[in-house]
Specification:
- The protein is mainly alpha-helical.
- The protein has five helices and three strands; from the N terminus they run αβββαααα.
- The chain has three domains: 80 residues, Aspartate Aminotransferase, domain 1 (Alpha-Beta Complex), CATH 3.90.1150.10; 32 residues, no CATH class; 36 residues.
- A three-stranded antiparallel β-sheet has the order 1-2-3, with no helix packed on it.
């Protein structure tokens, strides 16, 4: 892809995608970097340039991009079963992973609840906690919130 096609992809992106953890107005002057592929620590652009992935794309910070063992396991899994929701269904990989996690968990933690992202995991943990206390007969379960503190921190940062 030429530099002009790369720029066109970045423009299409800005027209339809909101990026997480990103101040979108920054991309009015700082161009988006279209990435064609990744390998190890490297991100490769369509124009042949490459960059070290210092952000580590959240999920690749330990082993790098396209680690051969992970790629092989994903391909193997996809050849057999791409996805089954665990609402009334089960499958061997979900059970095997849960068994492995329970083996290394602290005593008393004997079940696994899968969540697909951090915010869902926090929501599930809060709901489980609320139900735990309700089942013990607690009159009212309460949780603290960081939203007020986060709002204050954001306002403070803007004033600097």
């Amino acid at each position: 892809m030429s530099a002009s096609r790369s720029a066109a992809l970045a423009a299409r992106d800005l027209a339809v995608v909101w990026h997480p953890c990103t101040q979108m107005h920054d991309h009015e002057t700082l161009p988006m970097l279209p990435i064609e592929r990744a390998e190890g620590v490297w991100l490769h652009g369509y124009d042949g340039q490459r960059w070290i992935d210092a952000v580590s794309s959240w999920w690749t910070n330990v082993l790098g991009h396209r680690h051969p063992r992970i790629v092989a396991a994903l391909k193997d899994q996809l050849d057999r079963l791409d996805h089954v929701m665990l609402a009334g269904f089960t499958h061997e990989p979900a059970v095997a992973l849960a068994e492995a996690l329970v083996r290394v968990a602290p005593p008393g933690l004997a079940r696994v609840f899968y969540a697909d992202n951090g915010s869902s995991a926090v929501e599930v943990a809060l709901k489980l906690s609320f139900h735990y206390w309700r089942n013990l007969g607690a009159a009212r379960a309460r949780a603290s919130s960081r939203s007020a503190a986060a709002t204050t921190a954001r306002r403070s940062a803007r004033c600097r």
